[in-house]
């Protein structure tokens, strides 16, 4: 009997080892994982939108700021002067427009008066013509009426010409006023831009700005790591991709937070392997080609958390392919 014990024990051990290996393989198939994963967030380059000397720095390296907080200020002197000049030009152009508007009103009144005078002269001419035809008015009287009607017509033409000239002058000055107002708006915007504020809440990074520095418009000065939107870029083997779908739940462990498990979901699956976009892509046509399982990027959005996360941190992720994909995963990212 004893001679069968060892074979039975050996068989049992082998069976247990086989079962364990099969369980390990099956678990890896149902819960694909990778340690080739890194924490990401929006890294926003901070730059001035105008050129000048920095007169105030309100933040320091690694400081947390909220959206709208002042980051630094640029000397506003030149921009204030530009606003003052633009305001003066607007006032002058407005005064000119008002003056020409009064001239237009006066010219319009002159046209009305000249038209009335012409109507009166024309009516008088018609009466004199009838009287002259009946012999009750002399030729001299008729000539006077004709002259009066002609003068009234010429006066009306002159009044109309003055009105057209006044309107043209007013339109020209009105165009100048519109341009002056646009220039004023530009100078006011430039003045506002001397105060640079945080576009989103986050952490100041790569900061070296100092008072007295000369900054150029749209030249990156430092970075702001947004704190409200975090994701993981994980690289999975191509053999894992058939089981991965968008919306599947994911558990994440960040190396810098070993006792914390973060939750998220698969947001998207890349359509190109990591080597496809590398600076030196693989040369598969060479004679020493060796087949290597490729890895594809899978983006995993994290649920909101108050944990102190940092961009670039190494992570481990595990996807639960046994769960039903969340149909509202896109809304969770909003």
TrEMBL record:
Residues 231-319 form the p-hydroxybenzoic acid efflux pump subunit AaeA-like beta-barrel domain. Residues 142-169 form a coiled coil. Residues 43-224 form the Multidrug resistance protein MdtA-like barrel-sandwich hybrid domain. Residues 313-324 have a biased composition (Polar residues). Residues 311-334 are annotated as: Disordered. Pfam families: Beta-barrel_AAEA, BSH_RND. The keyword Ribonucleoprotein does not apply. The keyword Acyltransferase does not apply. InterPro entries: AaeA-lik-b-barrel, MdtA-like_BSH, MFP. GO terms for biological process: transmembrane transport. Keywords: Coiled coil. PANTHER family: MEMBRANE FUSION SUBUNIT OF EMRAB-TOLC MULTIDRUG EFFLUX PUMP, MULTIDRUG RESISTANCE EFFLUX PUMP. This is HlyD family secretion protein. It comes from Rhodalgimonas zhirmunskyi.
